[in-house]
Each structure stands twice: as structure tokens, then as C-alpha cells.
Design a protein that fits this description.
Elements lengths: L2 H19 L43 E11 L4 E10 L4 H4 L7 E3 L8 H7 L13 E4 L2 E2 L12 E3 L6 E4 L3 E6 L13 E6 L1
Antiparallel strand pairs: 1-2, 2-3, 2-7, 4-5, 4-8, 6-7, 8-9
């Protein structure tokens, strides 16, 4: 074989090998497409830090706490009974789904709903002051009394049967606050208040 043909053959073989080595693919073997990386969507309802007693159910779980609505439940001549309700944000149409409506926030459930107590407990936790499910009450920044010997009992007392209620015996600011491990909306608060004159 003449020397020029040998040189052309070697040169052609080198060019072909170079093009295959550079990642070119034949029509029968296409380049594999990269697998897209999927970012998991975070749940709209956070997992609460509160664990309910066995047998209690709150489903769907309420969204983050917006705050408390504190109001006068009963006003007699000698004392005022205050009531508190946790309010939650209307995330993913939660308020609609539990039959309350489409506002910015709502109660955890309608009054009379069999899951109302469990859902309120989830959004409130246990008061460290009394060890009962419900908010911690203060009067003018002082803890409300838990028994007759407490100094603040003459001004403010936790209700004897229901931690969501307090007895106001003097003018001032009454505040109900959830436990610190309750999830709170960024625009919400752990507490709610009322001023009694």
C-alpha cells in the first residue's frame, strides 16, 4: 500500500476516533436526559408540638395559631367570668373545610363539634401554672391565682373547672396565652387580652 494511502487511513481513523471520544452519539443511542430534582412541597399545616391524650382526635389539624379571642362570658355584681377561644389562620381553606366560613381566621371548630375540645387543646397546650389544658392567665402581668391563699386570687383567679376561663375581680388587663410549643402564624400571637374597667 502506498505511503500516502497509509497516512490518509491513519489520519481518517484518528479523526473518527476523536469525534466518538468527544461525546457524539449515534442515532440508535441518544444522550440520556438528566433526571429533574424535585423539591418536596412543605405541608401547609405544621405538625403541632402538642400531643393529645389517647383517644382524642382533631382531624384535619388546625393551621398555626393566630391568637386568642378573650371576652366576657358572664358579668355579675361580684365577679366577671372571662372566656378565651384560640383562633387559627385560614390556611388551605381550613375554615371552610370545618364548616365555619372563609374569613382570614376562625375558631378551631364550631361550638358543639365533637372534636372542638381536642382541637382547642392542640392550639393551646397545657398551662404550666395549673397543669390543666388551656391558656395561662395573667392580670396586669401577674399570674392569676389558683387557690384561695394566692395573693392574686382577690384580683384574678383561674376558673375552678375550665382553664379556658378566668374570674376577673378587679379592673385591669387580663391576658390568656398558649403554651410556647404551639405553632404560631408569623402574623399571629400566643396570647389574647381584654381590659376590664
Amino acid at each position: 500500500m502506498p505511503l500516502t494511502r497509509i497516512a490518509c487511513f491513519i489520519l481518517g481513523t484518528a479523526v473518527l476516533a476523536g469525534s466518538v471520544g468527544c461525546g457524539s452519539s449515534s442515532p440508535s443511542q441518544p444522550n440520556p436526559s438528566p433526571t429533574p430534582t424535585l423539591t418536596p412541597t412543605p405541608p401547609t399545616t405544621p405538625t403541632p408540638g402538642i400531643v393529645l391524650p389517647p383517644g382524642m382526635v382533631c382531624s384535619p389539624t388546625p393551621p398555626p395559631l393566630y391568637g386568642f379571642k378573650v371576652s366576657v362570658f358572664d358579668d355579675s355584681s361580684s365577679r366577671i367570668i372571662l372566656d378565651s377561644k384560640p383562633l387559627v389562620m385560614n390556611v388551605d381553606n381550613y375554615c371552610d373545610r370545618v364548616g365555619i366560613g372563609s374569613g382570614k381566621f376562625c375558631d378551631t371548630r364550631l361550638e358543639g363539634d365533637p372534636q372542638r375540645t381536642a382541637c382547642d387543646w392542640l392550639m393551646t397546650g397545657i398551662s404550666p401554672a395549673t397543669g390543666r389544658w388551656g391558656p395561662t392567665w395573667t392580670w396586669n402581668g401577674k399570674p392569676c391565682g389558683t387557690n384561695l391563699s394566692d395573693e392574686t386570687f382577690t384580683s384574678c383567679a383561674n376558673h375552678q373547672d375550665n382553664q379556658f376561663m378566668a374570674i376577673a375581680k378587679a379592673p385591669g388587663k387580663y391576658v390568656a396565652c398558649a403554651s410556647s410549643d404551639v405553632p404560631v402564624s408569623p402574623e399571629g400571637s400566643l396570647c389574647g387580652e381584654i381590659t376590664i374597667k
